[in-house]
Amino acid sequence: MFSKDIYVSRRQQLQGTVKSGILLFPGNGNVGMNCRDNWFHFRQDSTFLYYTGINQPDLYFLIDIDNDKEILFGNDLTPEDMVWVGAADPLQVFADKAGIQEVRPLKELASYLKTASGKGQKVHYLPPYRAQTTVEISEMLDIPTQEVANQKSVDFIKAVVAQRSYKSDIELSEITKAVDITADMHIHAIKNVKVGRTEKEIAAELEAIASSKGSSISFPIILTKDGQYLHNHATSAVLNEGDLVLVDCGAETLMNYAGDMTRTMPAGERFTDLQKEVYNIVLDAHESSIAALKPGVLFKDVHELAASRLVEGLKGMGLMKGNTEDAVQAGAHTLFFQCGLGHMMGMDVHDMENLGEEYVGYTETLKKNPAFGFRSLRLGRALEERFVITVEPGLYFNPFLIDKWKAEGKYTDFVNYDAVEKFKTFGGIRVEEDLLITKDGSQILGKPVAKTVADVEELKNS
Amino acid sequence: MFSKDIYVSRRQQLQGTVKSGILLFPGNGNVGMNCRDNWFHFRQDSTFLYYTGINQPDLYFLIDIDNDKEILFGNDLTPEDMVWVGAADPLQVFADKAGIQEVRPLKELASYLKTASGKGQKVHYLPPYRAQTTVEISEMLDIPTQEVANQKSVDFIKAVVAQRSYKSDIELSEITKAVDITADMHIHAIKNVKVGRTEKEIAAELEAIASSKGSSISFPIILTKDGQYLHNHATSAVLNEGDLVLVDCGAETLMNYAGDMTRTMPAGERFTDLQKEVYNIVLDAHESSIAALKPGVLFKDVHELAASRLVEGLKGMGLMKGNTEDAVQAGAHTLFFQCGLGHMMGMDVHDMENLGEEYVGYTETLKKNPAFGFRSLRLGRALEERFVITVEPGLYFNPFLIDKWKAEGKYTDFVNYDAVEKFKTFGGIRVEEDLLITKDGSQILGKPVAKTVADVEELKNS
Ligand SMILES: [Mn+2]
Ligand SMILES: [Mn+2]
């Protein structure tokens, strides 16, 4: 945990923003894999952690703003529990460390909320992402399960986003730790991706680095020779000479801050000339985007800049044609770059994803473009100092999309489908870094990892 | 998947047992860690796999016994989905491989069930262990979430247990694969548990072996110098000279069969004399139990045999006293052996745990003993040929329990508390193997792993 005053002042600021009602923070429980008691690893809810720092399952916390009370609800371990899991501090000890005065048994929560609702107090909660939380809110507040998400508190969401978006120094130090472990994973990947090995074998080694140095991975590892499929995971596939391997992975620290980087490398010793050419287009888009980052700039505009750089490069290779800006505005680049340029990062790899992109990445006046490609851009709003974001342009030669759009005659003004045809087995390339927005620009976080063709090849064969 | 006829005949047998109504099989979905779309690794429901073999998320299967229909409900990937996850076979292909005739969109399931219920058909379902399944059943069958578990079908449970308890040859071959990978994990542990390393580092390496050779771990790895706490997981604690390290872990194969073994080893090069002495008591109980296994024997009796051997050994060390059988019947051994001797193992590490111990491990006439210690024995019933079980006796010197029972004056006829006092920092020892019950005895599954003091020390220092 951070020091007590951090949690206390975060909560004070939150109360000051929402002003009235009860703020309900459901902590996460354990989730059964194939039986109730055979658990996935425990992951506390990020907002619960942000305001309390308590990394224990089966708790609820509430702030009763109207009555100026903060209460942690949960059950202490019984002596019988300690036979199984060993000693644990009573909840009061955790509460003290978080500056929370009062602890009550979990079974008193429902009646506390019922009494409060009966008196006309509004119970604010964030949109649940675990079904267990939906069930509990439904039962305690007497809301049908189908209605629970709809009755989320937008005021609460906005107040949380207004705090968690800006990373404090101590958070930046945690994020940097996460990115450093993430860098170690990538250095291991570049050295150990080899012809004859399976994707899964190498992914397992990367996960071991994350688990031994931090708490775990921050998201399921993408390690694939089919990088053209954006969220393809590691399989039993064996790597062959000529394969391009895309590795997108991140570590989470013991304090649950995330890293998220991507590198793309040849399975064999060297990139082919064609791979180098495409790689350098992606790297140019990556570097141009980073150069454009500073407070006040719309990230949507940086996304479009990246798209323009990619189109320019593809035109140079004869895969695209026509006016670059027209191509981007029409969305023709989305044949090769179907996703967003980046996202916020913090305690969640897609930070605050559970609170809704419309509140985190967009504003009342800047709404998300619903067109294909653009709708996958999670962050469009103006950047501000202390935001931490990723920049991750890529080129993805997806054979299904190529065949489909060719058959539909889509974007024929901008795409040379005949030239594209031979790229249907090329794969995908992405290069991703984590960055802090500074007063007048940005700063790449964490220790450096080989990024140019020459550096990747050198590290690979070192 | 196994061959189609296996799934077809399993379902025929099941229909023949339950005889009427609709059998509903909810497949598992993905579960969000900290956001809806940042998933834990996908684990299909074991019963769904057993009867269909289909290892894909977000499906339901049903057998309408009264109308002789089998229907798989789910949604095919859209071309947009394939941008993200690549090509996938349509559901009809999976259904064909499972011998299922009909595939319908998921949205038609609720009305199918409503119509059937309206006509008076009973909808049988197994007790859900994921909240998402509870929500879905609640919404589709119009049962309050609090009531969903209560309205489970006992007929359905018993029919499933009557099949899954007996492992076929092809299942035994999968379980053996799982135990072989598990053995590799233990061999790695014995060689790599070393003074100065952290528990987490080594646990991460074991998990990497499971993930690279199979699908994953079959349960969260226990790797701890505090083996006296039964379900303690790996922490950042550093191993020191003199520590005993208890490693309980297992792999799951790509077909989702589990292994589950335990070894206990010194952090340093050798066991101390005292550690050897206690180790050999546990090993004697382990071997005596295995020698007693055969069809017809109550596993409850084997558990008591193990307890007797432990008491004999502890008497030899001066920690216990009095008549051995009286001590076991009184439960005095539970100060040192608080859990059960073993459990069924198959697709779940505690096989069919989600269906309820009363149906899996006990019978109408043999009910579980609710006393401390005995109530943690998941399996009490008579063994039968083709059961796969674990045998895992242990001695656990839990300081809380020792202090508590000493203060309460509990079992003073059988326990020499003064002698026990110096064991409060000893730790815990467990030795576990996976076994098949054969026609006239049992057979240890998988490749051998060092088990005697001499063999463990030799492997450690090899
Ligand atoms: Mn990213
Ligand atoms: Mn076991």
TrEMBL record, chains A, B:
It comes from the Bacteria. It catalyses: Release of any N-terminal amino acid, including proline, that is linked to proline, even from a dipeptide or tripeptide. GO terms for molecular function: manganese ion binding; metalloaminopeptidase activity. Its EC number is 3.4.11.9. Residues 2-134 form the Aminopeptidase P N-terminal domain. Its cofactor is Mn(2+). One of its GO terms (cellular component) is cytosol. Keywords: Aminopeptidase, Hydrolase, Manganese, Metal-binding, Protease. GO terms for biological process: proteolysis. It is an enzyme of class 3 (hydrolase). InterPro entries: Aminopep_P_N (IPR007865), Creatin/AminoP/Spt16_N (IPR029149), Creatinase/aminopeptidase-like (IPR036005), Pept_M24 (IPR000994), X-Pro_dipept-like (IPR052433). Pfam families: AMP_N, Peptidase_M24. Belongs to the peptidase M24B family. This is Xaa-Pro aminopeptidase.
